[in-house]
Amino acid sequence: MSIDGMAATGLERDLAELRAALARHPFPSPQDHILASLATRREPPRLLWLAAMLSRTHEYDSVDAVCADIARSADSGMPPPPGR
Q1: What is the DSSP letter of 70?
Q2: Which domain holds residue 46?
Q3: 42-65 mean pLDDT
Q4: What is the residue-wise DSSP string for 2-63?
Q5: What is the reported pTM?
């Protein structure tokens, strides 16, 4: 459940899982390092798909910045990850 008592959306659950997966990832970090870290740890493909939405030219300062950018991309009409 989310803070306001409503069930979490698939994106919210995926972002929570992404936060956990990147908890020990070193920042700042570009998209390719984030993708490599997720792939090396054999994280679920949907997390790699989400990280693929990140800018290839931006260096992210924190996992919060990563999740915020993914949420913005999802709001702009990106299709959901496979299996959603």
Answers
A1: H
A2: 10-75
A3: 95
A4: -TTSSPPPHHHHHHHHHHHHTTT--SSEEHHHHHHHHHHTT--HHHHHHHHTS-SSPEESSH
A5: 0.80
